[in-house]
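The data are quoted verbatim for completeness:
=====
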Amino acid sequence: MALTKMAFSPAIGLRDTTAYPTLPANETAAREQIQGRMDEIQDFLNDTMTVEVDAHLADNLSQALNVLYPPVPVVQAKIDGSDTGAILQAIVDYAAANGYNTLFCPAGTYIHEVKVSYPSNMTVIGVPEATIFKAKNGSESNPIVIEVNGKTNVKFKNITIEGNIDNITNFNNYCTIYQSSKVKFEFCKFQNTRGVAVILSTDISNSGLRFCDFNNCGTLYLTTSVLTDRKQAIAFTSGTLENNRGNFVDFCTFDTVGLDCISAGSQYNFRALGNIIKKNYAGSIYVSGSRNVKISLNEVENEVGGNGIDINACKGVSGVGNICRKCGAAGMLIADSSDVTLLGNVCKNNHQGTSEHQGGITIHSATAGVVMLNINISGNICTDDQDVKTQDYGIHWLAGSGTLQNIHIDRSNQLNGNKSVDISGNLSYDGAVNIALGAGESVTVCKSDMYGILDVIRYNDSVVGRLYLRSNQSPYILNDYTGSKFFNTDTGTEIAVYYDSGTSSIILKNKTAVSRNFKYILSMM
């Protein structure tokens, strides 16, 4: 039989229009015709291909179950606006018990009055932008729509999750993945959710999202103005580093999210790659308490939110090729973290709000007793080209209660046009910052637009300090660190800047008394 004789319609199955010119009389007859045509397809392929196709072809095809046409006596799913969550659960349970590994959900809106729990080794496929799982109006059990609990190898593809935000009264998560592995969402859409759109909680491994779209998620805040009404789009949470491994968010888009678009805590080998974020009301990509984190090629613009990329208390972080512009706070924030490389990022026109994180890149030693160690910042572009500038610093060194060691800010960074100064330092804490400047190049250590500038220039193994004062201001005004400030009785000869080759450090010292020493303000290679 030639394949040109065959026609396909979802409602009537696959049939030979010559041998079967009329529609099948019932569903049983339709299924018999479909099975017969699969056998003929196998024969056709074996007759025309040099490699024989075995019976697994028919097995694979037969393992896909259409939820609108399940085997008798299973009740078919509804797409007429009536409740279908419990019906879908019965279909899922039947499929798992009878060897079906794929569920096909044709175009339509499936009203979920209850959640549907999915088993291991199952793929749920819909029609792009036309298969909609919708939370039912006002149901107390909602808006949980999808649940995967303690399972492995579960995939959702081409499904739209409609959160029905205006008709839901609680903040339940819409898709809940718990203690599971290899759970993936691909080419799905999540929209109008009151709670978190997707939460992956407690001992999640090798799971995540690819090519998904999020719109208007966790945004009840926009109506109530209550901060606690902000929720994430995606949240990886709870569990341990040992068990939360290999999770990811790749090539997703986010437009209008109440809290973080991507939030990840206690993750090992976590990846956020190629995501596009247009607007959200907090940090866009937030990772905390994690190890071996890769944040690459993301594009963030969230002028109503917080930091574009926010890394907190992590170890082993690679931030490469990201674009962070017009963020509410810093383009990229690194806080209380170690072994960090920031390479080739563009951080432009940030600090649109009033946050203390004011740089294209901000380094914040926030917590007492925490040492930020081994941070390399190279090849980044941090600039502000707005008519009214907002990004105070290209690279912002923000003091807290912690300390810094071995911080390398390479001369390959392009820092220009920022509102205040390209690199800001804070003389009030005993950190070491490695600028790696060449001979004859300078860095502004301390700047006050009102009072003056202190520059340090390195010439091979020697350095020169240049102190510029506005009008008749006294040197002490340049620094207000209690116990180590300049005093108006000091003279220029009492302030020393020198290069210590033993520690590879530039030292700025007030020689009047020991209590006025400044320790390792900058170090250079």
